[in-house]
Amino acid sequence: MADGNSHPFNNDVIADDTIVQLQKQLSHQQQHHQNISKHKDLIDLLSSNNTSNHFLNTNDPSINISSQTITDDDFNRLKSIIRSTIWSIDNSIRRQLWMNILTLNRVSTSKQPNEHRHLSQIPIPTLSVTIDNSLFSLTSKFNQWPNYVDTTNICLYHLTEPSGRLLLQRILFTFALHHPDLTYCPALEPFSSLLLHYFNEHEVLYLINRLLIKHWLCGETRLQWEANCNVFKKLLKLYYKSTADAIELRYPNTKIFYQEWFWWIFRYLPFSYLVKIMDCFFLEGPKILYRVGLALVHLFIKTVKNESSGSIRNMADFCQQIPISIDQLLRAAFHIRNLKRSTIEQLVDHEEKLLHSTRHSSRPDELDQSNNLNNININSNNNLNNNGNINNHQSIFITPQHLTRIPKTSVLDHQQFVTLWNWLPVRLSLTQPHLVFTTQEHGFRLQTLLEKINEIEYSILIIKTTNGEIFGGFCAGLWSDRHNKTYFGFGESFLFTLLPKQTKYSWVGQQQDSDNRQHQLKRELFLFVNNEKIIIGGGNGDGLCIDASLCEGRTAHCETFNNEPLCSSPYFSISMNLNYLILFTFLHTNIYALKPIHLTIVVCGYRLDEALNALKSSLIFTPSPLIFHIFTEDHLREEFLRKIDLEWPVEYQSKFQIEFYPIQFTRGNDEQWRTLFKPCCTQRLFIPDVLKNIDSVIYVDTDTLFLSNVRSLWRLFRKFNSTQLAALTAEHEDPSMGWYNRFARHPYYGAMGLNSGVMLMNLTRMRQVDMISKIMDIFDEFHMNITWGDQCLLNIYFNYYPEQIYEFSCDWNYRPDHCIYENNCQIAKTDGIKILHGCRSAFHNDKYQEFKAIYQVIQNWKFDSDLKFSLLSQMKTNLKNYSLTNCGKAPELFTKHLSKEISLLDHSFKKIFHIAFIFNNNWNFIEQSHVLLKSLLLFSSNNTNNQIHLHVILTDNHSQNYFSKQIESMDYLITYYNSTITHPFQLSTILNVDRVVYLNPNMIFINSFDKLWSLFDQFKSKQIIGMFGQCQMSGSSNVLLLHLNEMKNMDINFERINQLSTDNVYFLPCKYILDTDHCQSVKHGLLLFENINHSLFGSLYKLISQIDLIKSNDAIENELNQIKNLQCRNELVNLIIENKKTK
């Protein structure tokens, strides 16, 4: 990256001669607009909104940048300055300007329906999103561009070939991996390409992610993109009707014309025009593109009417030869009156729904299928329904243009494979197939097949019989679930036949309903596995069954799929000569679990701490990203954020985003609804009105605790049939204890009613049936008879509409009622408790001490502590104290499922180790830290579940750049802080982590850092600092283990060092300092200090500074052996080799 004072361009991807040319391309009238006072106003304005610490003061503004708020008044001032000021494309202000305005969050001075906080206001690590170097090879594997890119409109601008193009591809493939829900997003490529002219790849990833969060990319599916094009056409008719009429006359196919509107700006306008438009876009959003596009087409029609040379034949010609300055173009764009962002969003939303309604699809997740791929009708027989008749409501079958990896098999031809691929859920049909198992390659053994697919969630089993018939099943469900359940899987599964006829048999639960619960369970028998067979589809017959030899099988009608037998004979044989049994899965299917989960909670009064504990429990056990929708009172909002920033570490804060909403009852009578039962509890009923752009949410009461991965609960949405819009659990399992069946004075659902503490809500369906209006009518009729507020209203509603409820098991909503006398939630005995519901103040009441104990363990658990020992073991220990109570008689209920979750998390969560350096202006320290960190990688085993996070305190940007270059090849997560602190005890004032190891760089690691970090677990209750204070060495503060949160709680700071008691200090064992007089102790030592053995330190320092970390063991051993008189040489060599083996 070039020095910001010379030019802002990225030297890595733009040639030097191109930069010179760009510097000469000053925009029209730019000198007239270089208004110094406006420039100063801009700096002052952004400085007043807390961005002065990085605006125009750093060469890398993505470092230490935070989401900032800006008021309406300041936003309008900023908008006026940016609109009216035209900087040259080489002006150094642009790089910092774009970074700053993209991080602004506008806050209205008037009361808004919600406040949004995308990211915590903390420094964002520069390496929080990484680009895998292996993506260099993706150009050959994936036909050069991800599926969501429009390859007919690639915009490289001034990027060099091939380095610039290759880096752009790496960025786009990174987004393809991290955002699998992007099925069609053409805007992402030109935006990334443009930003790459000014920023490095990490900054581009950060900024594009901001645009994705804001939904400013004109669509993330083909349907949304088409909706935006249709809206542009409508706006043209609204604002320039005569122009729209002229287009109708000029172009026979206006659809093609309007589909190109985005590319007029990004592909055909001069680069200097585009850059200026982006100045406005990054502040104001997509409405700028609409304004400019409308102005362009209006000016185009005016120009061609008066142009006689014929040089301008179409919009592309007009944009490339545009006869007016950028200043005039923007004036025309801003002259359009009353074109508001809200208007555009409403039109796009309406248009998208309209397009949805015109798509023929059997399921909501397939609505977009015919629009995502080429509409090529392969075979009219593909539209046969289960009875062999043409189904008018089934999607047209199409050839996926992206399907570049159709494997060659002896089972399916190309047409059959494409037919099958079109039957898949859209999100999977847009991925690439991956062959996992064939009988020809892997043999005829069921156990081998199960080993291959154990951790696969989506797979296709295809069989060709000795008679030539082809059929199989799509298996939606994690195969490892077979260990926990008899039948497993979910409703996306289906059976199919491909030869002699092509038929898909979907789950009947998507089309049918039944009041008979036993019959309903028979229709949810998706997958079954034991040592003797695999079954797909059960219920009065096996849809498809294969025995352990993988040679024989049977097929019959089953209730789950209501299928005909899949072949002509009920029993079939699989040929042993060819791979006539194969199984596919999907590349990157694990990424689909990263789609955010929406979790909603309502917090009023004294419930703040309880709500925070509920959210904390969801975060602990869920690797997937979460979005918290919090409805709360105004005075609690800031306290929410303050506690999260203070108590929740950076690594966990990056896993979620928060959206705040005021308490609002959208249908009137606020006071009546607010005071019904408990304060604000009825807010849940109005969520569909408020979260209008959200499809589904999980709602939980504040007095709930997750003892499981939230993703597992979210998956229950897949079990909904076509009419179900909510999921709840029964109020009781034992009729003798039921409240509704004994006391209710109103109708209620089922035999014993429903409990609403945990609720899955399909908001889209709730809006479609106008559920809120019906509940309002119910309230008018029964408000004198209800006891439990919104829960009673929901019971009455689902009594009238039982087909709309899905009932899940009590382990997802386990309450004191389930064990106060004896355990009456039978499934909890088998599977354990997944959500604990502490209703009736059970978490704070000594009457239910087991519930209180669980609550306190989670509340006191530190985020970066070990889950197995500090949380699970502590929970088991505490529960032993209540073994005589009814709930405490079976403590394993509380920990059984939790133990499974933690064992899974041990493999999916990275443990974060925090290291802090304070450099100030000490360049020697920076040089030494490079060797220290290199030694840490050299001598430490590479546990892939561990990650080291460096917190680097500097006072100037030159030091930062130097340090970054020193360690750029090392895999560390880094956060930089501009601060003048000088002592490690001051770290508690700027770091938002629980524990950190401070290091003075004058040392070398000779063993794993894990050992040093594990000493935190040796701290006793009052000990908050660890140091080598009792060893024969000077500088005992060279290594400090600091418990920062406890230091804050005890108010231990730099000024109060002398008040620190020895009771607060844990003295680190001296054996961890290398004793070169006893070489056999090397394997136990951790650190070699410069002042302990200057000679050995110097030798190792020189070796490590020059050594290549990826060299073989032999090469490293040879280099060590070349050092003359090296003490403990053999022991050091053995230590390095042993650790290198584990890498």
Characterization of this structure:
The chain is of the alpha/beta class and 1143 residues long. Among the domains are: 198 residues, Orthogonal Bundle (Cyclin A, domain 1), CATH 1.10.472.80; 159 residues, no CATH class; 212 residues, Spore Coat Polysaccharide Biosynthesis Protein SpsA, Chain A, CATH 3.90.550.10; 104 residues, no CATH class; 40 residues, no CATH class; 39 residues, no CATH class. Helices cover 38% and strands 14% of the residues. The chain has 45 helices and 33 strands. The protein has an eight-stranded mixed beta sheet with strand order 3-18-17-16-19-22-21-23, with helices on both faces. Strands 27-26-25-28-31-30-32 form a seven-stranded mixed beta sheet. Strands 4-15-5-6-8-9 form a six-stranded antiparallel beta sheet, sandwiched between helices. A hairpin with a 4-residue loop joins β12 and β13. The longest helix has 20 residues. The two termini are 33 Å apart. 43% of the residues are buried.
Briefly, what is this?
The protein is α/β, with parallel strands linked by helices and 1143 residues long.
Class by helix and strand content? alpha/beta
Give the strand content.
5-15%
CATH homologous superfamily descriptor of the domain at 597-808:
Spore Coat Polysaccharide Biosynthesis Protein SpsA, Chain A
CATH topology (level 3) name of the domain at 597-808: Spore Coat Polysaccharide Biosynthesis Protein SpsA, Chain A
Helix content: 25-40%
Q: Return Rg in Å.
A: 32 Å
Backbone shape: globular
EC number: 2.4.2.42
Family: Belongs to the glycosyltransferase 8 family.
Biased composition (Low complexity): 370-380
Domain Rab-GAP TBC: 88-285
